Structure formats: C-alpha cells, structure tokens
Amino acid sequence: MRLPRTSDVVIIGGGVLGTSAAFHLAESGQRNVTLIDKGPIASGTTPFAAGQTGYLNCDRFALKFGTYCIEFFENFEERTGHAIDFHQPGSLRVALTERFKQDLAGRHDAARELGHPVEFLTNDQARELVPTFHPPDDCRILMIPRDGWVEPKSVAVACAAAAVDRGVAIHTGVAALELIVDGGQVRGVRTDQGVIATSKVVLAAGAWTRQFGQKHGLNLCTVPVQHQAFVTGPVRNVLAGQPIVRITEPQIYVRPEQGGLLCGGYGYRPLSVDMNQFPVDFEIAALKADAVYYRQLCQAASKFFPSLREATVVQERRGLPTISPDGRLLVSECDDLSGLIVASACGVGGIDRSPGVGRVVAEIVAGDLSWIPPDVLRVDRFEEDMTADPALRAQCEDTYAHHYHEIY
Ligand SMILES: Cc1cc2nc3c(=O)[nH]c(=O)nc-3n(C[C@H](O)[C@H](O)[C@H](O)COP(=O)(O)OP(=O)(O)OC[C@H]3O[C@@H](n4cnc5c(N)ncnc54)[C@H](O)[C@@H]3O)c2cc1C
Fold this sequence. Notes:
By secondary structure, the chain is α+β, with helices and mostly antiparallel strands.
C-alpha cells in the first residue's frame, strides 16, 4: 500500500496511545486518517508492560476517565469483533500505614457511591484468594473486583484492526522525520518515504515524543523513565485467576503470569533518559537491565511474597514509559504549534489509560472537548522552570518514584 500524499489526520506512533487514537477518531466519524510507525504495531514500550488496569480513584475526573477505560476493555470485543486478551480477576490494594489506609477508605466510598461492589478483606480472606501472599498483621486490604490486566500488545493490535475496519490507513516501517510547518501551523509530515500533507498531526511517539518536539523548538514536558518488572517460572500455589496485589508503601505490584508471578515496582532507582543519547535505530528491546533495581525490587517484594526468594526469573520486562512533572497525562493541541496534538506522559499506566486518551484526541480533532475539563491535560501547563532538561528530568524522576503514593 502506497503512503498517501494527503491525509486529514496523521498519527505518529502505533503503540497503545496511537492505535487507540486511530480507533476513536474513526469511530467518531473522522475520515482520511493515517497512522505511521517506524516499526511494526506495538514496537515501543507497549509489549513490555504488565498491562494492569485500575480505574478506582477518589478524584472525580480521574474516576470518570478510569470508568470509561474499564468499560472499553469490558466491551471492546462485542463492540468491534476484535478480542483484547483481558483478564478481570480484581485487585487487592493493600495499605500499611494510616495515611494510605485513609486513602483506601476514600476509594471504597467512591466506588460504593457508584454502586460498585468493593469490600475490605481480612488477611485470611486475602490469603484464600492469593495463597502466596503474606499480608502483615496490621494492614488494610481493599478488594476491587472490576480491576484486571490485559496482554498489552493485544490492545494495540485489536485497536489497530478495529481502526482499519473503520477506514484508517496504517503504514508500518515508516518513520516521521519532521513536521512541515508554515506560519505556526502544521502543514505536513516529512517521512523517510515521502511527505504527507496534513493540517493535523497526533504525536503519540512514546519515549521519542520529547525528542521529536525538540526538532521544532517545542519543550514538551514528557520524559522517558526506565521501569522494570520480572516474571518467574511456575510457583506452587499460584492460582491462574488470582487478583493482582498492589502494596502502596513499598510500591509493588504482583500478578499471576503463566503459573508464575509477575512483579514490578516504583521508586527503585528512578532513571530518566534523554533519547538523544541513543542511536537513531535504538529499539526499546535493546534497553539494558538495571540489575540493582531488579535486586531491590525482588528483596522488597519477597517480604510479602516469600516464594519469590527461591523462584527462577524466566523473563525480564523493561521499557521507557513517559512521565510529566505533575504525573498527569499530556493530551492537547500545542499552544505554539497549531495542528499538533500531543498524546503522552501516561506514567506507568498507558495501557490502562489508552482508551480515555484516544477519546480525548478524537474530541480535540472534532473541536468538541465536552468530556473533560480542557485545562487538566493541557500540554503547555508547566512553568518556565521546567524548560531546562536537568530540572525537568529531576522532577519527573521524583514523580515516578512516588507513583503509588500520589493521593488524589
Ligand atoms: C515493565 C513495565 C510495566 C508496565 N506496566 C503497566 C501496567 O501494568 N499498566 C499500564 O497501563 N501500563 C504499564 N506500563 C506502561 C505502558 O507500557 C506505557 O505507558 C505504554 O505502553 C505507552 O504507550 P505509547 O503508545 O505511549 O508508547 P509506545 O508503546 O512506546 O509506542 C510509541 C510508538 O511510536 C513509534 N515511533 C516513535 N517515534 C516515531 C517516529 N519518528 N516515526 C514513526 N513512529 C515512531 C515507536 O516505534 C512506537 O511503536 C508498563 C511499562 C513497563 C516498561
């Protein structure tokens, strides 16, 4: 298929955000949409994710956004005929200290107001559901039945397929080199296979988003930070349908994966990267392991899951999710470049949040942002002190390091 010469909208990036944007644009009636990716679909950070979903929040906007996302995963196959590999065993959110026990109570009340059947569990009840979990005596545990996890690549693949069904043209193996700009307005995208004339570009280039913006003098405050998880071989008493366990204070998550445990966590050596430090053909799969991070993560998680001490690691996962200084998404048109819509900074939650991001992108393109307050996700909301790379990176590392500690 030849690259089109013109398109009403061009999406750069075929990870979960770009493919969800493509699906939502087409579903909302937008015609003549083209998505390009320099690799195949889902060739960035997406396939390395743990894929967990978690919609419950005390913040009204975040809850509305999260509820749309969870309903999207629940209904996608029926809506489109394409399957997302979605498991919904629920999650146990565990708080060890007073501050986070209060946060759990807030989440409990928010869910109950919506009529969702969350409940506090005793330690014995939690162990019945997750036999390998050793909860400390004085913790509080909230069971959230609607939580779950997806096989992350399946989200991008299914969204791409449903987008194609609705008329989107997808071109893989096509790299965007730069935007063509005239009078502060996007006029096209120059790719390694020719120019596509367009007045609207959705930049969903994952870890490369900031670097791409720099080519045009834009300071997009979205920084890639290395995140890691590991998967063990089969572990005795792991149940295929057991809930995810998220423990707030040590910032650890553990879920079942093919008879073993998948374990990840935040705050263990937060390390941001400047994509200019890598060669042009760098791929996420080539990211080097931070062995200290893995060791600290395993030590911290073993206190609650002692079987991790003896388990064999069969897979390491790592990638470069993008973080903003305040930990919130960036999804809006740029003030300084008309026609450029950025979709980035989903934290370590891009799979989970991709449906909502796609919906916002479609509303921006349609000029009807009625779903969410437009300022919340604005790309240009940061102060001048975030212009310098070191300050921005330090702030984003700090935000990442406290991901589970953020209380809305
Ligand atoms: C270990 C780990 C665990 C995680 N766990 C979870 C989890 O449990 N739940 C959750 O929701 N999230 C999780 N995440 C985060 C999630 O993976 C990311 O938030 C999400 O994948 C980001 O998607 P994206 O579309 O923004 O970026 P990417 O998946 O990186 O996609 C960007 C795409 O843009 C393309 N691209 C870049 N530049 C160009 C260009 N110039 N021209 C053309 N194409 C270009 C790339 O090839 C790539 O395919 C985890 C991440 C890691 C690493």
